[in-house]
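hi! just following up on the protien thing from before. the input was this:
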Amino acid sequence: MNIKPIRTKDDYKAAMVRISELTSSDPDALPDNEFDELEMLTKLAEAYENGHYKNAATDSVIGY
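and the predicted 3d structure came back as:
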């Protein structure tokens, strides 16, 4: 497991590829270390998305 911060689009794409690999089978069947990796990558990807992509639906509800 080599987890690092997601700082660039390339980092994000690589994380999404790895998330896809980890979720291609049953997540309940993953070994603990791979499940931990999936959990951390998902959190990092979510943080990157929240910081770099606007959610138009949410913004229109808030009134932006």
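The two ends are 40 Å apart (CA to CA).
The mean pLDDT is 85.
cheers
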